[in-house]
Amino acid sequence: MATIVAAEVFVTCPGRNYVTLKLTTSDGVTGIGDATLNGRELSVASYLSDHVCPVLIGQDADRIEHIWQYLYKGAYWRRGPVTMTAIAAVDVALWDIKGKVAGLPVYQLLGGAARDGVTVYGHASGDTVPQLLDDVQRFLDRGFRAVRAQAAVPGLERVYGMRKGDGVTYEPADGALPSEEDWDTGAYLDFVPTYMAAVRERFGYGFQLLHDAHHRLSPIEAGRLGKSLEPYRMFWIEDPTPAEDQETFRLIRQHTTTPLAVGEIFNSIWDCQYLITNRLIDYIRTSVSHAGGISHLRKIFSLAELYGVRTGSHGAGDLSPASFAAALHVDLSVPNFGMQEYMEHLPGYEEVFTTSWRFEDGLMHPGEQPGIGVEFDEKAAARFPYERRYLPVNRLRDGSVHDW
Ligand code: CS2
Ligand code: MG
């Protein structure tokens, strides 16, 4: 039996903050997991190093489910983003170790490839509609089969989803305190159909088109958005409303056939249960890193399979390469895969993380390296110390705080 002999937490900022857990076994095998909770990174780092790492030492590294249950039930305080991100990091690190011990990529341990590759969508954005169209072109030229389109709303200063300069991200904020964005739902609802029309007019219907409403609408507004986008045959609209009041999805459903995707801020199967079992969504978008790791994500996806709901793993740049790779292993192996987000990581991440995934013709594959296929260079990580950063705060025109 190989026991866990070391559990170390690293916080590094190669362009943006990532928290990484590294486990080492008595056989000298190491595994890594992502513990990044964007804008609240140190809370998970502390949860792990102060509370989880000490109880991992001496545990049997082979017993992934057992350790998951030990951390979940043993803490008494269940669920929540901090707890579930910490458990996810341990879980992914243990799957990484199991794969390395077996000499197999994790997707093989999950049943093997259920498809040739994983369809991913890229993030196109523009401050103006012509800029957005150029950006969509850029993704189609690279071979993407699916593109998310977001444009700045005329009259608003700063809106979610716009790339800054040449970087591949639009958050976290620039400074060490939250930046401010502004919002006007009416202006947004009038504008979105005009640019989706422009995208379809220029590029046609031969690729999947997606959009993220980022929790900003009321149910009836979401119904209106979905209905107005029906001519453009969206693959999905994402997070139309904050999904705390899940019953309201019935109202959205009554008004539109545009498919709905939800789940990036959910962290357990219990958050997903109602929407899935009532068939109120089409895609469940939980992430490996915020919803309890590979073990828990598979349970969520299996529940979804029973109800005809497909998967759409969250893959924003604030999820480190370790969780992006882990998501690809799950995507490749589950029967009800739908779509994987691929926001890409900021240039510079390669100095710290070495990856084995590949992108070809719009599809991704996690590669054949044993484990999750990502290596973490702790010496390089030390060159990029943590920087406090926040997600932006969003305000209506009268100054009230609105959902970001
Ligand atoms: C977004 C994310 O990728 C997405 O769909 O909603 O960029 C989200 O804003 C971040 O993950 C927040 O940390
Ligand atoms: Mg989103």
Walk me through the structure:
This protein is of the alpha/beta class and 404 residues long. 49% of the residues are buried. Strands 4, 5, 7, 8, 9, 10, 11, 12, 14 and 15 form a ten-stranded mixed beta sheet that branches. It has a three-stranded antiparallel beta sheet with strand order 1-2-3. A hairpin with a 4-residue loop joins strand 2 (18-25) and strand 3 (30-34). It has helices at residues 41-56, 64-74, 81-102, 106-109, 129-141, 185-203, 219-229, 249-255, 269-277, 293-306, 321-333, 378-382, and strands at residues 4-12, 18-25, 30-34, 118-126, 146-151, 180-183, 208-212, 236-238, 260-262, 283-284, 310-311, 340-341, 353-355, 358-360, 363-365, 374-376, 393-396, 401-402. The structure holds D-mannonic acid and magnesium ion. D-mannonic acid (CS2) binds next to loops.
Based on the model shown, name its key terms.
404 residues, alpha/beta, TIM Barrel, ten-stranded mixed beta sheet, three-stranded antiparallel beta sheet, 12 helices, binds D-mannonic acid, binds magnesium ion
Provide the β-strand percentage band. 15-25%
In whole angstroms, the N-to-C terminal distance is 47 Å
Radius of gyration: 20 Å
CATH topology of the largest domain: TIM Barrel
> How many structural domains are formed by the residues?
2
Unreliable runs:
none
- What class do helices, strands and sheet pairing give? alpha/beta
Q: How many strands? A: 18
The small-molecule ligands in this entry are: D-mannonic acid, magnesium ion
> What's the CATH H-level homologous superfamily of the largest domain?
Enolase-like C-terminal domain
- Summarize model confidence as the mean pLDDT: 96
The CATH top-level class label of the largest domain: Alpha Beta
Largest sheet: 10 strands, mixed
